UniProtKB/TrEMBL annotation:
Species this chain originates from: Branchiibius cervicis
The protein, known as: Glycosyltransferase family 4 protein
Coiled coil stretches, renumbered: none
Keyword Transcription appears in the UniProt entry: no
Top EC group: transferase
GO MF annotation terms: glycosyltransferase activity
Keyword line: Glycosyltransferase, Transferase
């Protein structure tokens, strides 16, 4: 908002249960000098410690993640965090979700404002072909372990995708990949956003086979960059691709054939990329900022 003053407070914690202890520390902080407090987590103890407007964004639902995460301890932790999200949605003056799937857990939350992507950074200038690699290239952005399932993608690439497309390559933006990888697979680790945008723009297909995403910013980044998206049908992927209209949704065991199909179908892949890039405009950072600024003005007046 023109002339607005933004600020942040650093709250340092060490030791165990930091996720829950942070909320207690947050309650003690003085935010009285601000007109709007916009929280993205851990604000469930903030009643009667309000600024004129307390806005909360729910980035998916920990209840949903509890259904897919492995381990009894982690399931219990996610369920407890889901309870904190439920309480936070009642404490805040106004709550929004980044995708409509979470509304089944919080039916009193009606507004959806998606996460935003910087189109100035991720969208290539000119024709979508201008930056593409000459060889079939697949990009993954996530983690080797856990819900992103990078290890499963690499195994499928080695066993099935390269068998059909021998010159295909797989790029991993992944900082926990092992030191030894199959032929054709390259791990980049953590890289600056400008380098990440370059990889998106050069890749033919982007794949993220997560078992859970509350939104899935990498899907929207890939669509902005013109890379065709393949995803498992998690909550975020269904929303960002409009239930598969602007990306291919496939079960984990069918990811390989879906990738092969897109790598081999040049015209179909180009049509999907163009349509997806236009659809992804609704996730542009400028659009998202405009929606939040309108919300701030409405709730703090």
């Amino acid at each position: 908002m023109p002339g607005a003053r933004y600020g942040h407070r650093q709250i340092d914690l060490t030791g165990s249960l930091r996720t829950f202890r942070f909320a207690t520390r947050l309650r003690r902080a003085d935010f009285s000098g601000y007109d709007v407090l916009h929280a993205h987590g851990d604000d469930y103890w903030m009643w009667r410690r309000r600024v004129p407007s307390h806005v909360r964004t729910l980035h998916g639902s920990c209840f949903d993640e509890a259904l897919t995460i492995r381990g009894i301890k982690e399931k219990a932790r996610m369920a407890a965090l889901g309870g904190s999200e439920w309480l936070a949605s009642l404490v805040a003056d106004h709550t929004v979700t980044v995708a409509p799937e979470a509304q089944r857990w919080y039916p009193w939350v009606h507004q959806v404002i998606p996460n935003g992507v910087d189109f100035d950074l991720f969208a290539p200038a000119g024709d979508l072909h201008s930056r593409r690699e000459h060889r079939p290239t697949v990009l993954f952005v996530g983690t080797w372990h856990g819900r992103k399932r990078g290890s499963a993608l690499v195994a499928d690439f080695d066993r099935r995708i390269r068998a059909e497309v021998p010159d295909a390559r797989l790029w991993l933006v992944c900082d926990d990949a092992p030191g030894t990888l199959p032929p054709g697979v390259t791990a980049y680790g953590r890289i600056p956003n400008a380098e990440l945008a370059d990889l998106y723009q050069r890749a033919w297909v982007f794949v993220l086979p997560s078992d859970y995403e509350g939104f899935g910013i990498p899907y929207a980044e890939a669509m902005a960059a013109g890379a065709a998206v393949v995803a498992t049908p998690n909550e975020g992927a269904r929303f960002v691709t409009d239930h598969g209209r602007f990306g291919r949704l496939a079960a984990l065991g069918d990811i390989g054939p879906a990738v092969v199909d897109l790598l081999s179908d040049h015209a179909g892949r180009d049509d999907l990329s163009r349509a997806a890039q236009e659809w992804a405009q609704r996730f542009s950072l400028r659009s998202v900022v405009d929606q939040y600024e309108a919300l701030y003005a409405a709730t703090s007046s």
